[in-house]
Amino acid sequence: MKNIAIIGAGGFTGQELIRILASRPDVRLRKITSNEYAGKTLLEIFPALAVGEIKHLVFENHPENSESLKSMDFVFLATPDNVSMYWANALHGTGVKVIDISGAFRLKDKAVWEKFYGMEHTAFPLMDSAIYGLTEKYREQIKNASLIANPGCYPSSVLLPFYFLRDFLELFEESIIIDSKSGTSGAGGRKEKDSLGYSTVYENFRAYRIEAHQHQPEMEQEINNLSGSRFKVRFTPHLLPVFRGIYTVAYMKPKSLPAVDMSKIKNTVKAYLDKEPFVRFYDNPNDLQLKNVQNTNFADFSLHLDVHAGVFILLSVVDNLRKGAAGSAVQNMNIMMGAPETMGLL
Ligand SMILES: NC(=O)c1ccc[n+]([C@@H]2O[C@H](COP(=O)([O-])OP(=O)(O)OC[C@H]3O[C@@H](n4cnc5c(N)ncnc54)[C@H](OP(=O)(O)O)[C@@H]3O)[C@@H](O)[C@H]2O)c1
């Protein structure tokens, strides 16, 4: 039985972690923290998540130091970036495995990190030991990791298809245009911000942070890890009037149109996906819909070539709170503890 703590359990991704972990026989939620809900039971605050023995688990204040966390096997950080930085550092070397859902440890370049996150990185030496938690790519490294930097939600929707497309990236010019739409739970968290909350987006649709979104360098870093090319990502995020789910469209220009053999590309991708439990390829673009992945750990994608315009198109969908956050975090935990990768997720 593995002991689990979730710091930031009252937020959107924290709640999703509780939902996934609550009924597992092989792990036990021992500590859930939220200053907002401290002293209240799970049943009082989130009745839908209150199942089995953890029904009466009481939210605690966020801890003041790491003492009470040292008896845990895993600590999930479902917290803002600066808070994750602090806790990853405090738990470093204690033997506790940390899975960080924030962006604190995703970028390997300190200057780029500080530019896009708008703060000083106070625990940068840990970056070397942080394994980027794109499970399908980094399975081997994840097995023995002590700190996982779980991918961002938008990058999850982009990088999973790109990973399976890796043999063909050299066919394309360096500029990649990525246009993503997210449900409001992907931007701003539980406490609604005026400009990003559901009430702003309801009966509305808008782009945001088009000049500098921190997921752009994350995508660029990881796409460039897949190929010898130096791709440049142009990323535009939008908010949809739904609660959860991300729909991404990526456009790439082939260097030579005749060199893009779609049946070869699709057959290669499908062969890779044979062994993948959560990543699914579709021939028909109409199959790419938020409702097919909402509340699941699936990542769906399709690939198309517009011969007229000379553009290659990738469509993909994920649930930002599942495959884009808590679901992949648990998938990583499963690997780290030697459990079946799909445990609790199918
Ligand atoms: N939402 C998504 O789709 C998504 C996807 C991937 C990654 N992420 C990342 O995951 C993290 C959490 O996102 P979210 O959407 O779950 O945010 P959220 O709903 O705003 O929840 C944030 C949580 O962090 C806690 N917190 C705030 N300050 C803290 C402190 N000083 N010490 C400890 N805990 C503190 C809050 O505690 P209280 O309960 O006391 O307020 C709350 O539980 C963020 O870094 C975000 O970028 C989010």
Describe the 3D structure.
The chain is α/β, with parallel strands linked by helices and about 350 residues long. The chain has 2 domains: about 1-150 and about 325-335, Rossmann fold; about 155-320, Dihydrodipicolinate Reductase, domain 2, CATH 3.30.360.10. It contains 10 helices and 14 strands. Strand 2 (about 25-35), helix 2 and strand 3 form a beta-alpha-beta unit. The chain is globular, with a radius of gyration of 20 Å. The chain starts with a strand and ends in a 9-residue tail after the last helix. It binds NADP nicotinamide-adenine-dinucleotide phosphate (NAP).
Give the structure's gist in a few sentences.
This protein has 346 residues and is an alpha/beta fold. The chain has ten helices and 14 strands.
Strand order, biggest sheet? 3-2-1-4-5-7-6
Average of pLDDT: 97
Taking pLDDT < 50 over at least 5 consecutive residues as the criterion, the unreliable ranges are none
Secondary-structure-based class equals: alpha/beta
Order of helices and strands: EHEHEEHEHEHEHEHEHEEHEEEH
What descriptive keywords fit this protein?
alpha/beta, Rossmann fold, Dihydrodipicolinate Reductase, domain 2, 2 domains, seven-stranded parallel β-sheet, 28% helix, 23% strand, binds NADP nicotinamide-adenine-dinucleotide phosphate
